[in-house]
From TrEMBL:
Record organism: Micromonospora terminaliae
Name of this chain's protein: Hsp70 family protein
SUPFAM superfamilies registered for this protein in UniProt: Actin-like ATPase domain (SSF53067)
Bias (Basic and acidic residues): 367-379
Positions of the UniProt region annotated as Disordered: 339-410
């Protein structure tokens, strides 16, 4: 069955969704469970002894053969070292994209008709062009790059958000991004104003704040194995419940450290407030007041934390929208946009007094086709497609060698 693929490769995690053709339209995107049943696989590449790249955290590693944090490095002139060899960051992002495309194609029996890959809204033409070149090197020539804020808006629109102008609040694993989107004269979403972000703040900082609280409760000298992973679990539980326990296994046996939502929110309040303040400044820098927005659209795994909605609601007098699983919002919107790459609908009439976009010049048409992105229906959700992470195709290792020697102009 024909399908399109939406990809969201974040700095800490990667998610994917597929949308299948249903007559003349596209069905609601389905989650692709990329790793062990989880909807998100770590954005980590490990160089195996045979030279193959393996996606995900390795069981053991000395650190020199594993690379993380490469997505935010796209555009840097200094390559990353992997197994002692220099690798351009954009090549590593393309390798991860290729792994997802090949895994999904193996399951579906065919390659997707189109792929949309989300990226940070602050990326300019230089970074986008570097990634396009790397994708083309791996024969991924049907990929459209769209700002993550645009794909987030598309996902919310598909769930019924009717607005024209919105602020996007994207809280990732270790980054935060604030940007504005609107429907343009062609009837699709675009970013406008100046996207702003924090590259040293995200959900993992909340885990660490909770871990520090637990260490203080246990006493000095104790560094329990698996503490951060347990704190991440507790963080998720506290988005629904009001109290739970951090459960750890020490030499003397299991131990429980009780944590309330109120205590957890006290620990992270300064960081969350910094993200909200940045979003408000982003709105003002575009010459708008918060009341001129139709909504604030949330994305990212930590966006479900109740304190986020509380502080946003206090700062901006507009609806705050969050999906049931916000870590999948960008990937879902990417698949919706991919459907419009293949089957664009007629353009909407231009909104009244729509301002001219300053999102920058379009990428040459030979690289991709810009999607028209109307709202979609909401058919019943299907079970996620489950794919076990495997090594990348052996041919991908050659791309690293080509990437090391190619010209870095752009």
């Amino acid at each position: 069955m024909p399908y399109v693929l939406g990809l969201d490769i974040g700095n800490t995690g990667t998610a994917a969704t597929v949308a299948r053709r249903r007559g003349e339209t596209w069905a609601r995107p389905e989650v692709v469970a990329l790793g062990g049943g989880s909807p998100v696989v770590p954005s980590v590449l490990h160089l195996a002894p045979d030279g193959a790249l393996v996606v995900g955290e390795p069981a053991t590693d000395d650190g020199s053969r594993t690379t993380r944090d490469f997505v935010r490095r796209v555009g840097d002139d200094v390559p990353l070292l992997l197994g002692g060899e220099p690798c351009p960051p954009e090549t590593l992002v393309a390798e991860l994209a290729a792994w997802v495309v090949h895994r999904v194609a193996a399951h579906e029996g065919a390659f997707p008709e189109a792929v949309v890959l989300s990226h940070a809204a602050g990326w300019g033409p230089h970074r986008r062009d570097l990634l396009y070149r790397a994708l083309w090197t791996l024969d991924l020539r049907t990929v459209t790059l769209l700002p993550r804020t645009v794909t987030v808006a598309e996902s919310h629109a598909a769930r019924g958000f009717p607005g024209t102008t919105a602020a996007v609040y994207a809280l990732g694993g270790d980054t935060f991004e604030a940007a504005l989107v609107r429907r343009n004269a062609r009837g699709r979403y675009e970013t406008f104003g100046l996207p702003q972000g924090l590259e040293s703040l995200g959900g993992t900082d909340f885990d660490e704040a909770l871990a520090e609280h637990v260490r203080a409760a246990l006493g000095p000298g104790l560094a329990p194995h698996g503490l951060l992973a347990e704190c991440e679990r507790v963080k998720r539980e506290l988005t629904i419940g009001t109290e739970t326990d951090v459960v750890l296994t020490l030499v003397d046996g299991p131990v429980r450290v009780p944590v309330t939502r109120a205590r957890f929110e006290d620990l992270i309040r300064p960081a969350v407030r910094a993200t909200v303040d940045l979003l408000v400044r982003t709105v003002h820098s575009a010459g708008l007041t918060p009341a001129q927005l139709d909504a604030v659209l949330l994305a990212g795994g930590s966006a479900r934390i109740p304190l986020v909605r509380e502080l946003l609601t206090a700062a901006l007098p507009v609806p705050v929208e969050v999906e049931p699983d916000p870590q999948l919002t960008a990937a879902t919107g990417a698949a919706l946009a991919a459907g419009q790459v293949v089957s664009p609908r007629p353009r909407r009439p231009a909104p009244a007094a729509a301002p001219v976009s300053d999102a920058g010049p379009p990428v040459p048409a030979r690289r991709h086709t810009e999607p028209d992105q109307p709202r979609h229906g909401e058919p019943p959700a299907r079970p996620p497609v489950r794919i076990t992470p495997l090594t990348l195709p052996k041919t991908s290792r050659l791309a690293l060698a080509r990437g090391r020697g190619r010209d870095r102009e752009g």
